[in-house]
Amino acid sequence: METRINNLKKYKTRRKELRSGGSLIEAIIWNHLKHRQAGGEKFRRQHSIGPYILDFYCPERNFAIEFDGQTHDSEKSQSYDAERTEYLKKFGIKILRIQNKEVLNNLEGVLKEVEKYL
Question: From the centroid of its chain, how far is CA 76?
Fold first, then answer.
């Protein structure tokens, strides 16, 4: 039985695809998280925990940031997100969910919220 849950090999290709084909929102945020710009903490892009791939993950703080666009508005997506959140909570991972439109409309506020969680 596999006891390792971080960055399982079977998700490596998918993580790489997500990093190279990321959204504009992820690119904007990454420019503010990389090189320990947020609270001096290291973030990883498209880091997997078990079967789930997180947009951004700070291993030192066990903290994830997830960005939600319109695709997360459906009942099916909300159910999936809730299941995913419960799974991650089992490992003590704190999750900050941010709507994509918030990044475009209030980037400074989003960055302050990230700092607050750190």
Answer: 19
CA distances to 2, 4, 73, 74, 100 from 56, rounded to whole Å, are 23, 19, 20, 23, 14
3-state secondary structure of 54: strand
**Cα angle value 69/110/50 (rounded, 5°):** 60
Q: Could you read off the pLDDT of 46-88 as tens digits, one per residue?
A: 999 999 999 999 999 999 999 987 665 678 888 998 999 999 9
Tokens at 99, concatenated: 């709507």
Which residues, listed in sequence order, are joined to residue 64 by a DSSP beta bridge? 57, 95
Would the pTM of this model clear 0.70, i.e. be above it?
yes
Both structure tokens of 32: 């503010």
Structural domains of the chain sorted by starting position, each given as residue range(s) with its CATH number in brackets: 9-117 (3.40.960.10)
- Cα torsion at 29, 32, 38, 43 (round to 10°)? 60
Q: Which residues contact 111 (CB under 8 A, 6 or more apart)?
A: 32, 38
